[in-house]
Amino acid sequence: MWHCSFFTIPFCLVLFLFSLHRTGSPIVNALSIDLINTTCKQCSDKSTTFNFDFCLTSLQPIPISHVTNLQGLALVAMELALENTTDTMSSIEKMLKSGEFDPFALTCLKDCLELYGEGVPMLANSIGAFLAEQYDAAKLLLSVVMEEASTCEDGFVEEEGEASPLTKENSDLFQLVDIAVCIVDSITFDSKVLLN
Q1: 121 pLDDT above the threshold of 90
Q2: Residue 25's pLDDT is what?
Q3: Taking a C-beta distance cutoff of 8 angstroms, is the pair 55, 179 a contact?
Q4: Superfamily for 73-195?
Q5: Sequence-ordered list of residues with C-beta below 8 angstroms from that of 48, at least 6 positions apart, any chain
Q6: Which residues of 89-122 are buried (b: 16+ CB within 10 A; e: fewer)?
Q7: In whole angstroms, what is the distance from residue 193 CA to residue 169 CA?
Q8: Across the chain, how many H-helices and E-strands are there?
Q9: Where are the domains of the chain?
Q10: pLDDT tens column, 138-183
Q11: What is the mean pLDDT of residues 11-23?
């Protein structure tokens, strides 16, 4: 049996997803698509901020999401959030070097780079906590990442007329993490029901 402390988190994620029962039958694929639709619908019914369409368009294009279960979907959402975070850090670094921004925007971008930099290990740790079935710890870490995306966006509105160049990235990160949190909530709820 492999143990995540000996491997990187992405490698553990791949091992975990491939360890799930998979077949290529159309029935399983249809059930998986239904799982995505049902999960996104249940999450959007629970929250006014949850975006059903974003959930579908984020999860459905990922091939592994069609041959997985609820736990696998949560991991896909967390992995997408981690990818978004690292991509956004690269974008911010390019913006900082571009010379296109005024001093206030540059300060905001530097703050955002720091926030996203803190988000990377938090997301990696949330994946580790989730794999260890420490769901409350995973949700706590994910919630902090959501807050950091909001903080980055809010920093730009402190000065009137300043537009955030990271609105899409912040929104995408917030929503990807929201998907993961909702799915982890569902898994936690299902676990409690099974125990009672």
Answers
A1: yes
A2: 38
A3: yes
A4: Invertase/pectin methylesterase inhibitor family protein (1.20.140.40)
A5: none
A6: bebbeebbeeeeeeeebeebbeebbebbeebeeb
A7: 36
A8: 7, 0
A9: 73-195
A10: 999 999 999 999 999 999 998 887 899 999 999 999 999 999 999 9
A11: 43
Identify the residue with better confidence: 20 or 155. Answer: 155
What is the rounded distance in angstroms from the CA atom of residue 115 to the CA atom of residue 73? Answer: 25
Answer for the pair 126, 142: CB distance below 8 angstroms, yes or no: yes
Please calculate the CA angle 79-115-117 and round it to the nearest 5 degrees: 55
Which of the 8 DSSP states describes residue 49? S
CA terminus-to-terminus distance, the chain: 30
SS3 180: helix
3-state helix vs strand vs coil in the chain, percent to 5: 80, 0, 20
35 pLDDT above the threshold of 50: yes
- The model's pTM is 0.81
Longest Cα separation, the chain: 60
- C-beta separation of 108 from 167 below 8 A: no
State which of 54-68, 126-140, 150-164 shows the largest mean pLDDT: 126-140
Copy the structure tokens of residue 8.
Answer: 């990187």
| Residue spans of alpha helices (H) in 21-134 | 26-46, 52-59, 70-98, 103-131
